[in-house]
Amino acid sequence: MVQAPDRPIRWTRPVTWPREVLALAAYWLSSRMLMVGLVRSGKTEPAIEVHRLYHGWAEVLRTGSFPVDDVSWQYPPGAALPMLAPTAVPFLTYLQAFVGLMVLTDALAQFGLLRASAGRPGRSTSGAWLWALALPLLLGLPYARYDVAVTALAMASLLLTAARPRTAGALAGIGALLKVWPALTVLGTPRGRTTRQVWTSGAAAALALLLVLAAAFDHVLDFLPAQRARGVEIESLAGSGFQLARLFGWPGRVEQRYGSVEFLGPYVHRASQLSLLLTAAAFAWLLLWRLRARRWSAATPYDAALSAVLLFTVTSRVISPQYLVWLIGLAAVSLSVRGTSQRPVALLLIPVVGLTTVDYPLFFDAAQLGGWRPTAVIVARNGLLLAAALWSAGRLWRATVPSAAGRRAEAAPAGPRPGHRPDADPVRSA
Fold first, then answer.
1. What does the pLDDT average to over 51-63?
2. Does 337 score more than 80 pLDDT?
3. pLDDT tens for each residue of 402-414
4. How far is it, in rounded angstroms, from Cα 156 to Cα 88?
5. Cα separation, 43 vs 359, whole angstroms
6. What's the CA gap between 83 and 97, in Å, rounded?
7. Same domain for 306 and 174?
8. Residues 173 and 27 in one domain
9. What mean pLDDT is predicted for residues 194-208?
10. What is the tally of structural domains in the chain?
11. What is the rounded CA–CA span in Å between residue 176 and residue 287?
């Protein structure tokens, strides 16, 4: 951790940076060069998806319409912004511009974590290190998806909650229009004025952006039918059960549908409905936690955001590899505060990220065909992810909700201790 510097850190002058910050910056540069190298050829599957799918969507969006009758388009309307942004970068191909923008966003997220933690009382650079170290475990994937940009918005929103709640809310609202889940990051805002400011500005920003997009494009809400029709994806928690069932004779099959590889066959629809019920139950638990929580600290908004997104990820019908980018970012923000309740959860996410990379891209083709090795990998990954979600929720509850004994002690009226005589002379009694 960075100790309080003898002189203030001037971020525009690297000579004032502590040694740890210089070491982290050097590591960030070297690791990101490797990540860019993994996608720069354009021949990997994630890069091909950007070059063909994202670029194709961008060309449709430039005509003033969202993709029509394209079941692969399942993103909220705000996703048009990162899809179109590379087309505004001159002298570069779409893939080059997209990767460059994601690298820039990654750098801003890293800088935000350092600025919020380095040399500040009660803060820790552990979060900055987690972001720097864990993101490359996903190889080049983070730079071939726009989840880095969405995660950076959510991270900035959380880090600004205490100082600039209206700005924090606006960033969360914009993020929700890009990929929905950043709306969950406002669940842990402190009660009272901060919550009113964050939630109001978030709703206003989301509505304003939606109105602008509705005025600029046709078919803004065409993504909803494809989302409703999604089934059980092979990498999801429910999909793990079907992966195991295939080894013992389950007669289902795998098929490319709605932009992902899904299971079809007996009991799949019921499993999909169960996943939705579990998501609803997770949301109900979060509302209960919000009502019962009494102890708020600087880490509580960050910890609640990580718990919420973990619960919604593990209960989702789809767990794509890029979802781990969200969890890395939120865990990094939690670790930026020394009093966080989520430190062991954040550490548990590191092997989850590693197993995700083993699953995709290394074993992904094998996972579609079935077999013990790919099944063992995805079951282990999802088992650890489920453990992380439950552990995170439990630690958040214990850190913020008083126990029954604690509530009784707080409610007990102040009075004389048993055996104490109010009229006794304290001096003579002594």
1. 93
2. yes
3. 985 555 555 555 5
4. 24
5. 19
6. 11
7. no
8. yes
9. 97
10. 2
11. 19
- On whether both 158 and 197 belong to a single domain, the answer is yes
Q: Is 12 helix (H, G, I), strand (E, B) or coil?
A: coil
What domain range includes position 290?
229-402
- Say if residue 213 is in the same domain as residue 237: no
Could you tell me if 176 and 251 lie in one domain? no
Q: Which of 170, 195, 219 is the last residue of a domain?
A: 219
Asked if the model's pLDDT at residue 430 lies above 70, the reply is no
**Mean pLDDT over each residue of the chain, to the nearest integer:** 89
Q: Tell me, what's the pLDDT at 423?
A: 46
The answer to whether position 423 is within a domain reads: no
Q: What are phi and psi of 236, to 5 degrees?
A: -80, 170
Task: With respect to residue 310, please indicate whether it lies within any of the assigned structural domains.
Answer: yes
Is 192 in the same domain as 287?
no
Same domain membership, residue 271 and residue 201: no
DSSP 381-407: HHHHHHHHHHHHHHHHHHHHS--HHHH
Coil, helix or strand at residue 6: coil
Has residue 295 got a pLDDT over 90?
Answer: yes
Do 163 and 279 share a domain, yes or no? Answer: no
pLDDT single digits (tens) 372-382: 999 999 999 99
Assign 3-class secondary structure to 122-180: CECCHHHHHHHHHHHHHCCHHHHCCHHHHHHHHHHHHHCCCCCHHHHHHHHHHHHHHHC
Last residue within a domain, chosen from 161, 190, 219:
219
Is 0.85 topped by the overall pTM? yes
H/E stretch holding 189: none
Where in 240-333 does DSSP place strands (E)? 253-257, 260-264
On whether the CB atoms of residues 317 and 236 are closer than 8 A, the answer is yes
Burial class (CB in 10 A: 0-12, 13-18, 19+), 38: middle
